Amino acid sequence: MSDIGGGGDEVLLDAPGFIRVYKSGRVERFLQVDFAPPSTDAATGVASKDVPILPESGVSARIYLPAPPSSGSYGGKLPVLVYFHGGGFCLGSAFDAAVHGHAKRLAAAAGAIVVSVEYRLAPERPVPALYGDAWAALRWVAAHATGGQGTEPWLAEHADLGRVHVGGESAGANIAHHAAMRAGAEELGHGVKLGALVLIHPYFLGGDSSETDEMGAALLRELVRLWPVVCPGTSGCDDDPLINPMAERAPNLARLGCQRVLVCVGGTDPMRGRGGLYCEKLKGSGWCGEVEDWEADGQGHGFHLSCPTSAEAEAQVRVIAEFLSHG
């Protein structure tokens, strides 16, 4: 890590190939978004379009509507999955080709409307401030329960707002967890309640790590170094309930504002142990819902994005679809 960047600007964090953050607030992102436009997918018939949520601040979403059955009619309203992409809170986009492809597959397999949220990134929009974007997206979806002027037609016409779920991958799973916790303390409005929470390779740090693989241990060290940059003023990964919801001073998981939880991990993901501990803590918290876990043997963090057509990635999508079908 260098101390001085171009022009004498001090470097706070240098993650080669990913991001460089300067003390002045300047940010350089090297992992570019491979933008994919909204479209109708030829293989699945899933249609997508982009819609604003907070136009004044740039928060938006890409909505995915599955194709109707061969009869031409849906035969009823469709569940909704509000989804958050990963990227360490500071990278990625709902409009990236890999995220776009995964959202299409989820919509098709689950027969659900997927609302993939483009939230503002840290460190410009630091943690926990960006959680506000997630909450605004959930409330925006809930507002469609009353209809009226300005509603998004796909949600107004096809969404079953009695079956609203939240989920995400990696940092997006962290965001989804905190959104579900907030839903346990506050009303979404319009009588809408969260049904289920889907955590894909959740980005939780802190505590003792049993990671023995050197590459995995190196990744964890980089993530620990990144955390105070994206979350200024943090007490550290062990004690901060924002990145470690199992920390001693974290809010009781019994307050989680949904009825069912699914946690998916990769067998070689260095954060897999945190996902497993989350399930254990949730079961022992006094929370009255149902929790399921699923592991992809031999697979790493985010494998469904890097190898989307692999047998393991397709199996993970089926597990999520099956879980949502019971909500």
Descriptive account of the structure:
Helices cover 29% and strands 22% of the residues. With 327 residues, the protein is of the alpha/beta class. A hairpin with a 4-residue loop joins strand 2 (19-22) and strand 3. The radius of gyration is 19 Å and the shape is globular.
Topology of this protein?
Blueprint: E1 11-15, E2 19-22, E3 27-29, E4 47-54, E5 59-65, E6 78-84, H1 97-110, E7 113-118, H2 131-142, H3 153-158, E8 159-169, H4 171-185, E9 194-200, H5 214-230, E10 260-266, H6 272-283, E11 290-296, H7 303-306, H8 311-325
Parallel strand pairs: 6-7, 6-8, 8-9, 9-10, 10-11
Antiparallel strand pairs: 1-2, 2-3, 4-5, 5-7
Pfam families: Abhydrolase_3
Protein name: Alpha/beta hydrolase fold-3 domain-containing protein
InterPro entries: AB_hydrolase_3 (IPR013094), AB_hydrolase_fold (IPR029058), Carboxylest/Gibb_receptor (IPR050466)
Q: Main attributes?
A:
327 residues; Alpha/beta hydrolase fold-3 domain-containing protein; AB_hydrolase_3; three-stranded antiparallel β-sheet; alpha/beta
End-to-end C-alpha gap: 47 Å
The general outline is globular
What proportion of the residues form beta strands (DSSP E)?
A: 15-25%
Quantity of strands, as a count? 11
What's the tally of helices?
8
Radius of gyration: 19 Å
What string, H for helix and E for strand, traces the elements in order?
EEEEEEHEHHEHEHEHEHH
Helix fraction, binned, reads 25-40%
Outline the low-pLDDT stretches.
Answer: none
Mean pLDDT: 93
Strand arrangement in the largest pleated sheet: 4-5-7-6-8-9-10-11
Largest sheet: 8 strands, mixed
Category by helix and strand content? alpha/beta
